[in-house]
Write a structure and sequence with these properties.
The chain is α+β, with helices and mostly antiparallel strands. It has helices at about 10-30, 45-55, 65-80, 85-100, 105-130, 135-215, 220-250, 265-275, 295-315, 355-365, and strands at about 280-290, 320-330, 335-340, 370-375, 385-390. It folds into two domains: about 10-170, no CATH class; about 260-400, Histidine kinase-like ATPase, C-terminal domain (Heat Shock Protein 90, 2-Layer Sandwich). Helix 3 (about 65-80) packs antiparallel against helix 4 and helix 4 runs parallel beside helix 6 (about 135-215).
Length: about 400
């Protein structure tokens, strides 16, 4: 099995170890030691303790708990010989590093252990010396253990708080980017719906009548078809220019066009009647609404649904009558229904992509309404009709 080699010491740790070792050697050669060795310990062992403590400093980041354990043994040897202040200072750094770089458990246990060690040193010193000066040993133990341990706790808490704040900032930035992308996607979908609803009607009429003009040999019918083609191409081009102008108007200087309202359905049905006469289509508008104002988003959605339904009828409906019905009871939702003959259709037919039904469903979903589209029984001779039905609430749920 592969053996995991220890990580290389951090360059700062190498500098700390080298500085402590050189400082201790300087103090040794100058004779600046802290006392006499205990019986049985040779004075040169102080240098051994110094070297071991310096070696432990190399592990202060990569293995802080191991470094602290080695440092405890080196400190015990140093105190038993001629004590060097450099060895003691490096030990305080190991205590600090064990709290700062060690696992969370070490950050809790090392300060508590330091406090317990200081209490024991104080009690033993008082019991042995039986003089008030023994308290100074307790103070020295606190400076060597408790002070660096709680300093490490404070620095670690600050570091963790900064890291948490940075992660929260990154999370907020990520959520903002996701919101921006969602907003851009929603705006692109809205633009696609508007573009489809405004232009598809004219392009469908152009496709149908151009095919008819090419396939019919009568000059009068071809002239009528070309007249319809020209009218729809001019209107479609005007709407395209208006939409492109709005998209290019980054500063908002261009006056936005008024949203279409249901009062304009008569003109929309009349235009469909002119475009669909060659295909044998008739159009009727039944407005059975109760009097009262409608919210602008509801009117726009209803208008676009009728517009797209008439476009689909021009593309696919069999000869017959297309009925547009609007209904609303007092304080009730607006119901929009468009029924067209469903069956085989002679003559030219414009291709469809299915985006119209998707756009209508999205418009209704934005208003929290109901939408259905599909063939239904016509009620006579087992004939079927294609019906688009939308129920548009006038108030949001929970707002009443």
């Amino acid at each position: 099995m592969p053996r995991h080699l220890p990580a290389r010491p951090h360059r700062h740790d190498v500098l700390i170890a080298a500085g402590g070792l050189l400082g201790g050697l300087t103090l040794w050669f100058l004779g600046l030691t802290g006392g006499r060795p205990i019986d049985g310990f040779a004075e040169p062992l102080t240098l051994v303790a110094l070297a071991v403590m310096a070696g432990a400093e190399l592990l202060r980041r990569t293995a802080p708990q191991t470094a602290l354990g080695i440092g405890v043994l080196a400190l015990a040897l140093d105190l038993s010989t001629s004590t060097l202040i450099a060895t003691v200072v490096m030990f305080t750094d190991l205590v600090y590093a064990a709290v700062l770089y060690g696992p969370p458990a070490a950050a809790r246990r090392v300060p508590r252990g330091s406090e317990l060690f200081t209490v024991l040193v104080t009690l033993v010193s008082l019991a042995v010396l039986r003089r008030p000066e023994a308290l100074l040993l307790g103070v020295a133990a606190a400076l060597v253990t408790i002070a660096p341990a709680w300093t490490g706790v404070g620095i670690r808490q600050y570091r963790d708080s900064a890291r948490a704040a940075r992660l929260e900032a990154e999370r907020t930035a990520l959520l903002a980017e996701l919101d921006r992308r969602e907003a851009v996607g929603a705006e692109r979908a809205r633009m696609a719906r508007e573009l489809h609803d405004m232009v598809a009607n004219h392009l469908s009429a152009i496709a149908i009548h151009s095919t008819a003009a090419l396939s019919i040999g009568e000059p009068k019918a071809a002239a009528d078809a070309l007249s319809v083609i020209r009218a729809n191409s001019v209107q479609g081009l005007a709407e395209m220019r208006r939409l492109i102008g709005l998209l290019r108007d980054a500063g908002g200087e261009q006056e936005p066009a008024a949203a279409p309202r249901l009062d304009a359905l008569d003109a929309l049905v009349e235009q469909a009647r002119a475009n669909g006469s060659a295909a044998g289509l008739r159009f009727a508008l039944l407005d059975e609404r109760a009097p009262g104002p409608l919210p602008a988003p509801v009117e726009l959605a209803a208008y676009r649904i009728v517009q797209e339904s008439l476009t689909n009828a021009l593309k696919h409906a069999a000869p017959g009558e297309v009925t547009v019905r609007l209904g609303r009871r007092p304080d009730g939702p607006l119901e929009v229904s468009v029924a067209s003959p469903f069956g085989d259709r002679p003559g030219p037919r414009a291709p469809g992509s299915g985006a119209g039904l998707v756009g209508m469903r999205e418009r209704v979903a934005l208003l929290d309404g109901e939408f259905e589209a599909g063939p239904v029984a016509d009620g006579s001779d087992d004939r079927k009709a294609w019906r688009v039905r939308a129920v548009l609430p006038l108030h949001e749920r929970g707002s009443q």
